[in-house]
Amino acid sequence: MTTMRSDARPRGVTYDEADLLRRARAARERAYAPYSQFRVGAVVVTTEGEAFEGVNVENASFRTGTCAEQAAIAVMVAAGVRGPLAAVAIVGDGPEPCTPCGACRQVILEFGPQALVYASGDAGRPLIRPISELLPDAFGPRRLGSGRRS
Ligand SMILES: [Zn+2]
User: What is the pLDDT averaged over residues 49-67?
Assistant: First the structure.
């Protein structure tokens, strides 16, 4: 599991990507996905090394479901932590890497503009990408601030 480029990780940040993926895989067991049967677990870790877990939570009213990544970030914020995120590990059902959906990419960017995303399934190597590559030309807090009238 060493597909990561050594220069991609923010300086001074220590975490074990294999451990993050193990934790995301274990969290996935607690997912609530009775409708899609597609379970996802996620772990976000800050540059200070604090980690928070999330799972997808579906609802009979499909639009109100929550993704695992957003759930993990909500847990982080509820704990009084605002990031910045160093890494996000995601493990979904099935063999292919479970990449974050568009909405989750935006939420990851909000709390971790330098974050590395590790997307995994049950086979093969994880896909590893900086969030800036997963969401190019993004609209984020800085752009919003530059449009404010004073
Ligand atoms: Zn999502």
Answer: 97
